[in-house]
Amino acid sequence: MQRLLLIDGHAILHRAFHALPPLTTSKGQQVNAVYGFITMLLRVLEEYKPTHVAVAFDRPKPTFRKKLFDGYQAKRPKMDKELIPQIAVVHTVLETMKIPVFELDGYEADDVLGTLAMQAKRKKMEAIIVTGDRDLLQLVNSHVKVALPVKGISESKLYDEEEVVKKWEIHPFQVADFKALTGDQSDNYPGVAGIGPKTASSLLTQFKTLEGMYKHLEKIGNASLREKLETHKESAELSKKLATIVTDVPVHFNTSESKLHNLNTLDTQLLLDHLEFRSLIPRLSLKKEPVNSKQKTVNSEKIKSEIKDQQIKLF
After folding, report:
1. Which terminus of the chain is more exposed, N or C, with fewer CB under 10 A?
2. Among residues 72, 61, 103, 84, which one has the least CA distance to residue 13?
3. How far apart are the first and last CA of the chain?
4. Domain residues of the chain, as ranges?
């Protein structure tokens, strides 16, 4: 079966930025997030061996969720100023690697990833989403898995339907319902005041969905809990809308464009050398094929000369 690897660009960049100490080039440019992103990318390509790959990024403009609820993500701190310019550098790296990037105003990267994953499923492909965002677990099904980091950027755990239930005691299709009840501090939507994870999990075990629960509120014996749910019904329904990932975003997954190409190209070597990531260049050859010693060493001076001759616009 063909396998599409989907990378949550901003989530991985943000995680890399905070996981690694400040790393600068000899010219003083901070590149720790870029280094971490590329390192993670090469690791998951080696680990999951996809036939296709794509990356999704958030756009700076407000999404439809902000229109639904003005307080959405209102408490999130501003992006670190040292991280902002590194986003453009990662885009350039992906361009040289011929890895397609998807992003769309009005939607989050989560929605783009969800749409691409569903399109891959319809093409009878397996999809693996690499992210740091647990909300994406709602997309897990027989054809879609989610890889979440275990520590830093060096290790991740792959979640299928069974692993989601084992870890969180809810099914993937219940993730948005769970968030509708508990709310979300990071995204700043309310849920139902006074309901925590254990109660939410118990309710969903009994009623399966938020809609099923409200249809049968009379079956909840705890009067105090029933009153909370009745009082905060609108909040719960709004929270579910905010938590639900859209899977019909107007983006199109093209199998030929997203097919994993040889990453070990001159353009990519030039760029990694310019960024002073020379230790990563040998890892561009993902297939473990024997090479002679001359092939293992990149001629740094030759690459610098190529940069000058081709006048490649790196930043």
Report:
1. N
2. 84
3. 38
4. 172-243, 266-310
Alpha helix positions (H), the chain: 9-19, 32-48, 64-68, 84-96, 109-122, 161-168, 175-182, 197-207, 210-215, 223-231, 233-243, 266-274, 293-296, 300-310
Instruction: Encode pLDDT of 80-137 as tens digits.
Output: 999 999 999 999 999 999 999 999 999 999 999 999 999 999 999 999 999 999 999 9
Q: What is the pTM of this model?
A: 0.90
CA 35 from chain center: how many Å?
Answer: 17
Angstrom distance (rounded) from CA 305 to CA 251: 39
Q: Does domain 172-243 have CATH number 3.40.50.300?
A: no
Instruction: Give the bridge partners for 53, in sequence order.
Output: 5
For the chain, how are helix, strand and coil distributed in percent, rounded to 5? 50, 10, 40
Which residue carries 């740091």 as its tokens? Answer: 132
Distance, CA of 101 to CA of 99 (rounded, Å): 7
- pLDDT at position 150, please? 87
Which residues are CB-contacts of 138 (< 8 A; sequence separation ≥ 6)?
A: 172, 173, 174, 175, 176, 243, 244, 245
